[in-house]
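Appendix B. One record, verbatim.
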Amino acid sequence: MRITRSVAGRRRRTVLVATTGLTVTALLLTGCGGSSDSDKGADADGNITLTVADFGQFGYKEAGLFEKYHELNPKITVKEDTTAEEKNYYPKLLQQLNSGSGLADVQGIEVGRIKEIVDTKADSFADLSKTIGVDEWVSWKAKQATAPDGAVIGAGTDIGPMSLCYNRELFEKAGLPTDRAEVAKLTEGGWEDFLALGEQYKKKAPEGTYFMDSASAMFNAVVSSSPEQYYDASGKPIYEKSASVEKGWKLAAEAASKKLTQGLAQFEDQWQAALRKSTVATVVCPAWMAGQISTYAGDANKGKWDITSAPGNTSANWGGSFLAVPKSGKNVAEATELVKWLTAPAQQAAVFKAIGVFPSNQGAYDLPDVKNATLPYFNDAPIGQIYADGAKSIPEAVLGPKDGVIKDSISTQINNMEQRGTSPDDAWDAAVRTIDKAIG
């Protein structure tokens, strides 16, 4: 759940999900959180307050799960402490881990941070491998939180399987098919087909509109759909030689040079305005992006958008988080049971229903609130089916401790190609300088 879905933060906005005939409210996503240990331990009557530190809306409060857990366990009360931005949450978490104090009973960890935590702080967290039923998770999700000794330090919450959101009205005006199956067929060969579709769109595009919002989002999707991304299995940065990075960069440069993109920094004011004014025809869509689009495009554009599968035969993952239990807590056993319960299929389905973030626990995929889910805003797109299919085709990838830094640095330079006309060579050289300085 979270925003620039690289690492710097996470946001979500209202997404209306229809499941088994019910409509559900959704989400505002921007954040992170921290918590103190002042409420830990049992009182004289055996009552315990468990603290959960997270960022953004993990959806537990919206789904009523903390109250439900208290009903099931009357002597346990759950207190959530949320911080607005993950970029503020994470440094505080590291400080607390280093000092050994101030930690919550349960701590949220963003996927962009999990590799660094596994590599440097795994010993600070309880091993959940015998508790959470690792086999229930999509395999690549569990491995992201697995230390070399086999300890699993975090239980997966949500994931961000990729799809493609497109403006049906703009497609129709440009003479393109609007049916989601037909659109998927046009891009089934991959992101090269996606750009070819963009060139078709450009020929008859309504004045003042662009095929895509951001080439950097497409770049991220290309890289994220490959098992080889920014690091190799030994932990060595390979972004300069990575085949997926090279491919993504080439396609992004092509999109910029052919003016297929409006060159917008996602989630910023101009991007929001573009959605409201319908000046972009497609947005690369991890599961949580639908909430962003529906919020900023607004009620006036309801039904004009649709969702189909991502280009190619392998999906990508953009986003997701974990719940971890610090060993230093006074309620490790109780906190572990809470994490197990919160990330079980029924609870993950409830969160999806409440705020639209997609479960990492495969057991949730066959539950009605996931399997039958549609998005009324997006022409009743069957998102439960689309996201579940995407999740199953996401390759297992090697994560690195500075994936977010690398991704953000490259995205900045792609934006410079789009907005400033920077040449691909100059933009790449600038990205490399920034990355090398940041990662050493």
